[in-house]
């Protein structure tokens, strides 16, 4: 027995976490293995009972398995087998336990019985019957068939039909094939008086029993039933209810009896059984077979799941049964074997959970008692004689106590050993459970669960009371293991060549390994330790590792000093970035732990900042120069219209911004100065790029005769600059100016960031904008000449050519050129080009339209040209937006051309439309007003007008009054050529005349509904000697007259009051156009009449306000 791990109450050894744990060996010496092999062979050869359903039946198969499990050569196996066959057979025993019975007959007057059992083994006469388990009713009873000294008797349970005995008996037999088990159940009959029996009488059945007992002998017990079984039909272990058989057919149903059987050995002849406790031998056998099972699975590249093969399960079952091992000792043997093998063989720790549960259950039941231990020891033949005599009983008692102490020590040692081994695995969990193996997290979690379950056991608490709490032990193991892992990694990264640069690279690799380990702890391990033990591994590992890293980084930066070379600066920058990444992993719980060693680590790198900034600019400048030199100034594709250098430049600037974000200097004032330097360098690179790309364009186009190729390059250059402007415009976002402004608010003066950073940016954007506008202006100038030339040709085309055909050359020119520009320019630059061309085109059209004012044909062509140019420049939303197209110049030109291109009659119609609009907008009656009623009768095609009155007329005569009359005409006259003007009667000296006259015009409805059709009411002052004076004009739109707007005849016609108006004093543009058409008589007549009215109006001033 191995007691090297200390006695009861001992926790893990003091040096547990600092020393390498040596697990107990699972190998036996040759002598031990020979003894164990002998005992195993003995178990198979002297097998008893029927095999279990899942067990191996053939002894040869079991012997072959033992030979493999013990690695015995065939010859040696045969010799051992021969020796075992020659050993004395064991004493075969049936361990029978009479548990209880139910439903037995009631033989007493009370209806109950006082049952007891007689049992024994009849040797030499088998039970008659065919198949196993068959029974033959036996009229003979146990006391008649089995000698009295071999008969066993249970206690009497009084007055019951369901007795409970739970008594165990050991019954020896010689030959299992001819032995049978007999059990008779009797009702104890005591001598009672008739009076006593009558007192117990409860029913007629009881009375019948009294008469029956009167006929039998006094004190004769009643037979209740029996059970007879052949031993060869029993399994090694049986636990069943058996029916009680009758001797006659009187009462066939006599109840059932619950029996447990176990076929065991006594006085086994093997050396191991004679010299060692049974459970110790079983432990060693279990250890040997499990070791073989695990090894077999490893050879097949599979993981053992804790299940034994049928051969191993059969052998161990037979061994435990034959040695009559208690459940506790079987559990203890399994636990000791598994826990020892786990420390030397690789199999899942989950296999330990079942033994832990079993042994804890047995411990709670109090199974590790002296009598239990003694029962196992007494199975050894060497202890058989200790039962005799009082002195021997005392020796046995002392021995049993000693055995109990030894087993407790062994159990405590197994707990301590497994705990120490488990802690050593936890200390080295990074290497023992690598994440490169997929099941490593599950294996570690299983180990922790085993340790937690073990430390929660009542047995563990009683046997190892001084052991520290498991979370504390695991935390100490993790802390020690983290430090050890760091030192191992430091040795791994130790450079072969000594030097400050090599030391920096080694330190960088070490920090990267630390970051990787912390990521693993955070993502995987921390959850496992927290769920099982409430331990925050990540926080603990971060505290330990950051302290170790900080010490080495500080030593390294001190060794570097203030003189930082470019190579050293690059090394320090990578180290700085790695430390930032490490600090970003800082767990939130650490904020409560105060200042960490790595806090403010950036101060160690201050001397390297100038080197970092210069290196960033130099790398970017070299990349820009190389990109421009390799650029052929051709678009990258249909959707990407800038060239390769613009892409490289965007990437270059993105890298600068990325470097700035990586740096993210914590000190606000220094961070501001660093950002200023980054912005300054970026803007300088932008201007350098503009100069380089223009020089590249001149270089490539110098030998080109094709002007189109030169234009292509110019387009690409402009697009590249536009792309650069977009990139530069993103600097505030990329460099996080808003966050920087919040950080430096308390350090810098108000507005200093705005005046510095934004001023730099705006200056760079302004320079880029000027360069872009210059390029776009150059492209626009090339197209403006062609546009002006085509517009001039447009008005010179002969009259027979339709306007749509006349503008085709202009539209084709623009389509070709604008498609070309759209293909080669990005949208922003193309929009700028369109704006310049649109402004120029409108200017040319205005000039040409002014020169062709009197030509209706030319104006019509210009009008259609303007309409098509608007569509062209808008390009269905892909060109200029409507607000950019519809400028004041465009609107004025559109209006002028609309009038210039119209016919004389159309202009006259437009004139009346404008006067009707003026009438509708006039609310003042300073000139007076007329009141009329008008309606149209469609059935008669008559327009009926009732002129009711006029009021507030101007006094135009010298006497302060007027002689008004009204002239009624339907306008325009060309729509109503056959209708003469009508007049009212003249009223003398009346500024408020009541005319009350009705006029009817025979006119179709269609011309009345046209725009501009109106009833012109001209109020005149009659002069006898000279021309009549104009009081004012009123225009009634005919389309609003009742009867014209609908098909129904008008009913009650409302009155309409119309304020009088004058013609425009400065002349009307329409009249000016009509006046220019000298060859048009109708136009000239209309102009003369309207100018006459305007002249009349200008001769009379408005009345002063009353």
From TrEMBL:
Region Disordered, residue ranges: 1-28
Location of this chain's protein in the cell: Cytoplasm; Late endosome; Lysosome; Membrane
A single GO cellular-component term on record: lysosome
Chain ranges of the MHD2 domain: 804-911
Main location: cytoplasm
Membrane topology reported for the UniProt record: Peripheral membrane protein
Family assignment from sequence similarity: Belongs to the unc-13 family.
Name used for this protein in its record: Protein unc-13 homolog D
Gene behind this protein: UNC13D
